[in-house]
């Protein structure tokens, strides 16, 4: 009986660690074209100010003409994982906005990160990525 209880605790903590893992969904890499009913399908504005983010995390590591998957995907995850909750929310324009700025500053070929970065069935795991402080567009804190 004590062995069953021990295995139960191990299983509980294993499931807890899986449930608390952060992923970047593969859905963010898919193009989101507008259909004829766009009035009913407008996306909410993203709470993250992607215009003023530091893209050198990506542009300094992911360079062409031969884009190394390990460098590009590591840099992409380092940049995007702090925003995983926002960019995975398909009711907002966060993923589209983020990729627009990544492509603007990095001049990357279309779909490069979707083609290079492969995760598991949940998407790209963010567990091994350090989180940086990020600024939300509606943030009212200014250090005071």
TrEMBL record:
Pfam families: LLG1 (PF26578). Residues 48-124 form the GPI-anchored protein LLG1-like domain. The keyword Signal applies. The lineage of its organism: Eukaryota, Viridiplantae, Streptophyta, Embryophyta, Tracheophyta. Transmembrane segments: none annotated. Keywords: Signal. Residues 1-21 form the signal peptide. This is GPI-anchored protein LLG1-like domain-containing protein.
């Amino acid at each position: 009986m004590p062995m069953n209880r021990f295995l139960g605790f191990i299983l509980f903590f294993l499931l807890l660690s899986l449930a608390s893992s952060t992923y970047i969904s593969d859905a963010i890499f898919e193009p989101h074209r507008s259909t004829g009913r766009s009035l009913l399908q407008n996306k909410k504005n993203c709470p993250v100010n992607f215009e003023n983010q530091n893209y050198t995390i990506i542009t300094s590591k992911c360079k062409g003409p031969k884009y190394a998957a390990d460098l590009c995907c590591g840099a992409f995850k380092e940049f995007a994982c702090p925003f995983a909750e926002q960019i995975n929310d398909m009711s907002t324009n966060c993923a589209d906005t983020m990729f627009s700025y990544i492509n603007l500053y990095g001049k990357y070929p279309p779909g490069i990160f979707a083609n290079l970065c492969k995760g598991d069935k949940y998407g790209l795991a963010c567990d091994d990525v350090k989180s940086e402080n990020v600024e939300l567009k509606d943030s009212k804190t200014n250090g005071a």
